[in-house]
Structure formats: C-alpha cells, structure tokens
Structure prediction request, 440 residues.
Amino acid sequence: MIDPIVGFSKLSKQEKIDWVAERYTQNPKKAKNILESYWNSEDEVQKLHDEFIENTITNYYLPLGIAPNFLINGKLYAIPMAIEESSVVAAASKAAKFWLDRGGFKSEIIGTEKIGQVHFMFYGDSFKLVEFFNTVHSKLLEEAKPLTKNMEKRGGGILKIELRNKTTELKDYYQLHCTFETLDAMGANFINSCLEQIAQTFKSEAQQFALFNEKEKQVEIVMSILSNYVPGCIVRAEVECAIRDLKTSTSVSPNEFANKMLRAIAIANVEPHRAVTHNKGIMNGIDAVVLATGNDFRAVEAGAHAYAAKDGKYKSLTNASIENGVFKFWIEIPLALGTVGGLTNLHPLVKLALEILQQPTAKELMQIVAVAGLAQNFAAISSLITTGIQEGHMKMHLLNILNQLGATEVEKNDMVNYFKNHTVSHSAVVEAFEKLRSNT
Ligand code: MEV
Prediction:
C-alpha cells in the first residue's frame, strides 16, 4: 500500500522522479534512465517544456510527419502532422497527391464566431429580469472594456450579449449567452476573462436594481465559461472532379467508386456506429494538424462531435454528391483555432510548424485543418470501398512489429522487401522474421 503524498508539486523535478520511480515502477533505475533520456539536451528548452504544465518529469514524444502536395485555394502546402498512428500521414499524402492532379482543394470560412456563457440562477420575476438586463447591458460591455479594448482595436471583441431564459429546461436557470470575435487567437483566456467580468458586473448591478425585491437581488452566478460548441465558427472544404477522373490503382471503376463513396456516407448518416468511426478517421487528420500547430485538440474534438449530432442524430461530418457527371466531396466543421497566443509563441516545434504552413492566419489554419480532415476521410473511404483498410494499414504497421521484434536495419530492409508481395499480419511477420533469423 502506497501512502498518499502531500505537497508533491513543491518537490524538485528530481525528487518527483525519485518518488514516482521508487514507488510505482519495478525497476526505478531503469525508469529514471528512460525519463531522463527524453529530456532536451539544452537546459533552456527543457525548462520551457517543464513550465508548460505542473509536475513535469519528462517529455512525451510523438512523431511529427509532413504530408506534402496539398493544393488549397491555389496555394501549395506541406502539412505538419503530429500523430502516432502509422498510416495517417501516408494516407493524407496519398489523398493530397490524388487531388493535386484534379484541381486541388477549395476551402472557405463560413463564420468565426465563438461563444461563452454566464450560467446563473434567478429566483423571481423573469419580466423584471429582462428589464434589468436591458438596463445593465451597456454597463456589462463598458466594464469589460479594459479587457476588450486591444482586441477591439484589431477588429474583434464582444459581438453580442443575450439573456436566455432556460427555465423550461431547468427551474430558475438563465444564461448570458455571449458571442465573440477573437481574430487570430483561439481566445479561450480572452473569452473567460470577459465572462468573469460580465458576471461580476451583472451580479453587483442586480444588488442595486430598484425594481428587484431582496430575493431577486441575489442573482446566483453558477459559472462563467466559454463553450467548445461553436456552430458559428465553421469552415467548409471541398474537392470535385468529373467522375471519369476518379480512377484509382484498383479494379474498381470510377463510376462504381463514386457511387460507393456516396453509399459509405449514406451509411454513416443512418448508422451512428459507423458514423463515429467515419468521423474518427476525419479527426485523424484534424487532430494531427491541430496538435502540430499547438492548438487544443480536445476542444476541437468535443465541438466537432457535437456538431455531428446537431440534427438530433450523430452523422457524418463529410458529404458527397454526384451531379451531371461531377463528383463532389466536402466537409463542414466547426474549428476554433488560433495562430497567436498560447503555445503558438512558445513551443519551438509549433513555431516551426506554423512557419512551414507559411504563417497562416487563424482563418487560413481553419481551412488547412478542414482540408486535412477531408483528405483523411477520402483516403480512408477510398481504401475501405476498394482494397479494404488492412492492406495499407498493415504495410505501415510492419515497421512497428519489426521494431517490437528487435529487427536490425538490414533485417527490416529484407522484411519490407519480402512483404511487398505478401500479406502483412502480426503472425505472418513473426513467422517470416523467425525464418529470416534462422537462415542467417
Ligand atoms: C482508423 O484510424 C480510421 C478508419 O477506421 C476510419 C474509417 O473507418 O473511416 C480507417
């Protein structure tokens, strides 16, 4: 039985490592060596990473890959992707190349509005509350000015504050539903600071509102927080080509391919089990770019899945059509992203990823990320409706299996060559590897 610890965060980094290695690992010496081997060799860089979060003991690596040849609105991008799943970057690159030869991707911003809410309880006459809100509205904005003035200078700020009566859903529950424009910042800190100020003004003004009785004066603020559901912060990305141009390296004809793509989406739209996996494939591309560019992939995930369920049923985030011999494939997705603030100015690899993307604005990054999601979905569905997913997937996974088996570089080479003409499965690789070793 291990005793709980008090004051862990006050320990030095070395003490934290000793504590966890000695209490929770079989071989503390080995554990400490592993942790230390992932430190950056430059103290300054390591210190930077240490300070991103609390209780840092080391860095957690993910591969950063590049998917080149993405033509988006006429501009050619090489997209950095941070992800552990072996076939994702290869699939994105393949889809990028496919569409490069067919006019590339088009993308447009549909909206950039973000949302935050002050959730509160009001025990009284809702008509008086409306009157109070109308009276206090300008003061809410005025007292938030110190926080909003810089953002306003650049064209952003608080766009709207609405009072929403939610009492039919929850007794005495109301909201101040606020919309924001945060320009190139993801804006979480900006929004939350504004909301807390708005809540404070709202509460203190209520205490002085002459029409309120004593109970009504006691507005109970429950919480003030941004929403990661941003259906007003939407980007659309699409590709299109003549059906005859949908030739793939498989025996599936262009016509059949187009029809099967549509059917795959139709299935996702009626069957949530499939829709979740379908959208997971989209998020493979989206999360990888979101992570590489230092954005909050949990926020993006939560918002995207809520959007997928906006019609009351969880559906595909992508769509396709066939009209007059033209195949069209598109995505519409909420993406609250930033290219300034947060990690973007701090993490050396994030800064580099943004440089590789040619210093995009937040709107451009939304377009790039949506395209990455669309490309990933195109690649996944293309495989699923033709060869099946395992062929490509297992080819990419081959190196992982060989690494687990401790193969040398020469052995890996031999095995990759061998599996060019054989089906990869875990057992087939183990068998072929053992044979290779026994022959040498
Ligand atoms: C695997 O990470 C993603 C896929 O399952 C997506 C899909 O099925 O559409 C291949």
